């Protein structure tokens, strides 16, 4: 069982209180009416499925009901961080296969100690 830290409640709770909602940081097209059917289909249905670091959107369904982002390693299931909507992740894939463990992004490295992680 995972224990996930909600960045809004400030509590670390059991995984059953949360629900994953897919890939994080997906930008909606600025003018959906101007999109072709193929572009709109890509936006709606196609997501990354990397082996390694992945940013996901989750909701604290049984708690505060707020959406937040989780950085998770898809091979080990380790949750590296949780952060509020609108914030940038501390950990990035940094080239994908070259760094499967992930590395802190250079601009957020100073904030890493301030973020509460998750215990697995």
What features would you describe in this structure?
This protein has one helix at residues 37-45, and strands at 3-5, 12-14, 19-23, 53-59, 67-73, 79-84, 91-92, 103-104. The chain has one domain (3-114): Folate-binding fold, CATH 3.30.2270.10. The strands form 3 sheets. It has a 4-stranded antiparallel β-sheet with strand order 3-4-5-6, with no helix packed on it. The protein has a two-stranded antiparallel sheet with strand order 1-2. Strands 7-8 form a two-stranded antiparallel ribbon. The chain is globular. Helices cover 8% and strands 29% of the residues. It has 120 residues and is mostly beta strands. It is built from 1 helix and 8 strands, in the order βββαβββββ. The model is unreliable at 95-100 and 105-115 (pLDDT under 50). The chain starts with a strand and ends in a 16-residue tail after the last strand. A hairpin with a 5-residue loop joins strand 5 and strand 6 (79-84).
